[in-house]
Amino acid sequence: MREQNDRSSGQEPHFFMGDSAKVVSPFGARGGNTGISDADNLAWKLAAVVKGQVKGKAQKVLLQSYHAERHEAAATNVQVTQRTARFLRAKDGIERTFRDATLHLAKKHAFARSLVNTGRMAVANPYAHSPLTSPELAISHSVQNVEFEWGDGSRGQLNDLLKWAQGRALLLVWLGEKNAKAQLAELQASDLARRARIVCVARQAQQVRAIESVVDASSALAKACHMASPAWSVIRPDSYLAASSSQWSVAAIGQALVPLASA
Question: Tens digits of per-residue pLDDT, 184-211?
Fold first, then answer.
């Protein structure tokens, strides 16, 4: 991994991505795919700074998160491709013994076929050390582009909501059956609508109580956010989960948005 950040000379930091930032073996198309992921990770952060969505110290934290997240992803990809290379060209001794035994077993037994390592396809890397992820969440995963229903019954996808958010954080809110009015009042009294795009998620069409609402009868959005019964989730412009909770708290939502959008 190579980087340059010339703070000592007072210059602005430089960001490297793709093959200019790391060198990996070609197995699993991880070079090209992760290069695109590098660009996807950095683009919305630069845009947020340029548009003034984040200010002061939050700008520095947001931009430095690029290295924290993508260096972790690069290290993982290098490790994965190195393992593939060692399997394909095993050294004499235990490596070759393991490789040959795996190939022999794989001819007859299904369990051994998953051990045959001719290249692991690229995946969206999770972030375990990101300063943008809430401490309660611990690890940030990419949220799948699941389907839901618009209020008129037509089908929509998560990417439609992210496009509508136009580079801002997306706040999904699951209103409670008994306290929905109180929750909506809290949202309207807060500054959250200025800092994020808010969408209320209803489990049934008749439960829609806000203009910006979608229907998620199958709980696909909740599952994509890795929650069984979420109260709210914050999704970044690059579709990574920044925060999620089963407990309703406007203060906690505001805190989760601090690295993504200045108050």
Answer: 889 889 999 999 999 999 887 666 566 6
Give the CB-side neighbour count of residue 160, counting CA atoms within 13 A. Answer: 14
- Which domains, ranges and CATH numbers included, belong to the chain? 18-113 (no CATH), 147-257 (3.40.30.10)
Nearest to residue 252, comparing CAs of 263, 243, 240, 261? 243
Task: List, for residues 2-42, the tens digit of each pLDDT value.
Answer: 444 444 445 677 888 877 777 777 776 777 778 889 999 99
Classify residue 106 as exposed, middle or buried by CB count within 10 Å of its CB (0-12, 13-18, 19+): middle
Could you give the strand order of the β-sheet that contains 155-157, starting from the edge strand earlier in sequence?
Answer: 155-157, 147-149, 213-215, 196-202, 169-173, 232-235, 241-245
Angle made by CA atoms 181, 183, 189, in degrees to the nearest 5: 105
